[in-house]
Amino acid sequence: MGIASYYTSDYYMAKTCLKATIVLEEDKNRQFYACFFLSHIYKQLCNNEKACRYLAQPFVLCKNNYHKSIAYHQHARVADTIGELDGAIESFKISIAHFLQHLSHTEADVMAGVVKNEELGNIYFNVAITLCKFKNKDWDMIDKYKKMSALCG
User: Fold this and answer.
1) Per-residue DSSP letter, 27
2) How far is CA 100 from CA 27, 34, 55, 151, in A?
3) What phi-psi label fits residue 27: left (phi over 0), alpha (psi between -120 and 50 degrees) or beta?
4) How many Cα neighbours within 13 Å face the side chain of 18?
5) Cβ distance 135 to 117 under 8 Å?
6) Per-residue pLDDT reduced to its tens digit, 23-78
7) At what angle do helices 65-81 and 48-56 cross, to 10 degrees?
8) What CA–CA distances, in Å, run from 91 to 3, 25, 37, 57, 115?
């Protein structure tokens, strides 16, 4: 119900249902997604403090590397939005590491063109975009992440 309310932009109902899910639900995956959606709601409502708080909770609830990757990716996007670029880059890198563990690959595999995964490519692209926001741009690093993004598909 909370997720359906989120998609219909009924944020009051969504917040109510998702907060109840966190308290009442025993399944860690459902708690994870409730926190994830609450973070998105608060981001939409421009309450970055609560968005970060709810986004921090999934790190404890993550059961596998894929969910950890999602949590760190979303944390990075929130950090980027509020201007914490160093924190965003660090979270993006951790997200990539967990995603590669999930896929049982390495960055060398990505550079060799073995890994074809659009979702991973999007994370690499987000790193490149965030690096472009730095005052002193590291063009070699930006090019590296753009290339890795392209190689992923």
Assistant:
1) -
2) 25, 25, 21, 14
3) beta
4) 25
5) no
6) 888 777 678 778 878 888 998 888 888 887 887 777 777 778 988 888 888 788 87
7) 160
8) 25, 27, 18, 15, 21
